[in-house]
Specification:
Layout lengths: L2 H18 L4 H15 L2 H10 L4 H8 L3 H33 L1 H13 L4 H12 L5 H19 L3 H18 L4 H9 L4 H29 L13 H5 L11 H27 L6 H10 L2 H20 L2 H34 L2 H8 L7 H16 L2 H12 L11 H10 L9 H10 L3 H29 L7
Helix pairs in contact: 1-2, 2-5, 2-16, 3-4, 5-10, 5-15, 5-16, 6-7, 6-13, 7-8, 7-9, 8-9, 8-21, 9-11, 9-22, 10-16, 10-19, 10-20, 11-13, 11-22, 13-14, 13-15, 16-19, 18-19, 18-20, 19-20, 20-22, 21-22
Length: about 475
């Protein structure tokens, strides 16, 4: 069957399953992967595997394997690449919250920048915590702090809320080990350290543009202070009463995030600089950098520090046990969805879509990155989830990465930014922000949705400029 038709079948199943039948993303993506695998031509599947270095006999055997087995294999390959990272990131996020380390980090940033720069402090805190912690959780944590600031200053309530969103939402879509950007990086063959560095730089620029809009809309249409809606998280409200003496030290609080960031980015920077200078790292040092800079090792070390911090603050194994169970329960759901997306993308690659795309010369056009942005944004707007939008989009666009005239990091950035617009009533995050902040639906659209679209557009523009000015072809 024609690869383009197979692609349409897979995408149609994803949209109809989620939008019409309200099926879980894991089930829908798995079903789409099986449909693509079932309708793909064995000859094209064999050609794909031969292109991957398999012999004719091996490629033929893989092509003739039952489609359910091929889907399960692709599912397992994805899990092997990112499973440990997602689980460890979930543990880090949970321990930061339960130990009080997240609150310590936010208070330290607020203290360092002062009340006059409180919006910047809220944005920086959201950005930093959004690296290992899911956006919804970051927002739950920081909304009471925003309310406390607004109550004391008697102004800028909406600005504080939008600052949290600007920092946390961008980190959610641009910086691993958050599942979306982690999955995109793996699918496009991008080093995770490079993905983190690029996400911090370009994502920081986009978040800054969001802050500018937040300041402007706060002056034009300020949102009055509002208490938590009925049913708000009482535990989060009580955190305002926690004394600093009851929180862990700042260096220990930051270590679960900073250590993996240093190890992963350090490996990327050291190896990149050495290669550019024509130098060869000593064998023992290269092995050490490779060991500690491995994403699984780096995140595991971060999780160990987080668990130690929780044990130290709570003084027992029960808190550690409960935190791990809760973290793995929530992280497991995300992992299942992500691996199903990996299976879907893997089946699309085997369908022969790569060759069709190569014949179109899509990587040579200026329009490619805007097209990727629009595709991802359409998927996000229609079905509501940024993570599912990134997973689906990279499954479609991934086979094109080898044909690009610039480094695929720019495609990864654009897919991440494309997952931002346009959040509305079908997005769970929209309702979290609306109910926890007290904003009406109209206010949430005017503030959150417009700001997300502006940040995404700015990120797209800078990604396009980077792909032209600094294509980074030598790093592929």
């Amino acid at each position: 069957m024609d690869p383009l038709f197979v692609l349409l079948i897979g995408v149609a199943i994803v949209f109809i399953g989620i939008l019409v039948f309200k099926l879980h993303a894991f089930f829908t993506l798995t079903l789409a992967a099986m449909a693509v695998a079932a309708f793909s031509s064995p000859e094209l599947i064999s050609a794909f595997w031969q292109g991957e270095g398999k012999s004719v006999a091996e490629a033929t055997s893989l092509a003739n394997a039952p489609f359910g087995l091929r889907v399960a294999t692709a599912f397992g390959v994805t899990c092997g690449k990112i499973g440990i990272v997602i689980c460890m990131a979930s543990i880090i996020g949970k321990t930061l919250l339960d130990s009080g380390a997240a609150l310590r980090i936010v208070r330290a940033i607020l203290k360092a920048l002062g009340e006059k720069r409180a919006p910047a402090a809220m944005g920086a805190s959201g950005f930093f915590l959004g690296i290992p912690v899911f956006f919804d959780t970051v927002f739950y944590l920081m909304v009471p702090l925003a309310k406390a600031l607004a109550a004391s200053t008697k102004r800028n309530y909406g600005l504080y809320i939008l600052a949290i969103i600007a920092g946390g939402s961008i980190a959610h879509s641009q910086i691993p080990p958050t599942p979306g950007p982690l999955f995109v990086a793996e699918q496009l063959g991008i080093d995770i350290g490079m993905m983190m560095i690029s996400g911090i730089i370009v994502g920081g620029i986009a978040a800054f543009s969001g802050m500018l809009y937040a300041k402007w809309i706060n002056k034009k249409k300020p949102i009055p202070f509002r208490d938590l809606e009925e049913g708000g998280d009482t535990e989060m409200q009580s955190w305002d009463d926690v004394n600093d003496s009851d929180l862990p030290n700042l260096w220990l609080s930051m270590a679960p995030i900073v250590l993996p960031l240093i190890l992963l980015s350090g490996k990327t920077i050291l190896t990149g600089v050495a290669g550019a200078a024509g130098l060869e790292l000593p064998g023992w040092f290269a092995n050490l950098v490779g060991l500690l800079g491995d994403k699984n090792v780096a995140l595991t070390l971060g999780a160990c520090i987080g668990l130690f911090t929780l044990f130290k603050m709570k003084g027992g194994n029960d808190a550690v046990k409960e935190a791990m169970q809760a973290a793995l329960a929530s992280g497991g759901i995300v992992l299942m969805i992500t691996c199903a997306g990996g299976a879907f993308g893997g089946m699309l690659q085997q369908s022969g879509i790569r060759e069709v795309v190569a014949s179109l010369g899509v990587g040579n056009g200026f329009w490619f990155l805007p097209m990727a942005f629009i595709l991802t944004a359409m998927i996000r707007t229609v079905q509501g989830s940024a993570t599912v939008a990134m997973i689906t989009s990279v499954g479609i666009l991934g086979p094109m990465a080898g044909e690009l005239t610039f480094h695929p990091i720019y495609l990864a950035m654009v897919i991440g930014f494309g997952s931002k617009p346009v959040p509305w009533m079908n997005d769970s995050g929209f309702w979290v922000i609306s109910k926890m902040s007290g904003m009406t639906e109209g206010e949430t659209l005017m503030n959150f949705s417009v700001m997300a679209t502006i940040m995404a557009t700015v990120g797209l523009i800078f990604s396009i400029i980077g792909s032209i000015v600094l294509p980074l072809n030598g790093l592929m």
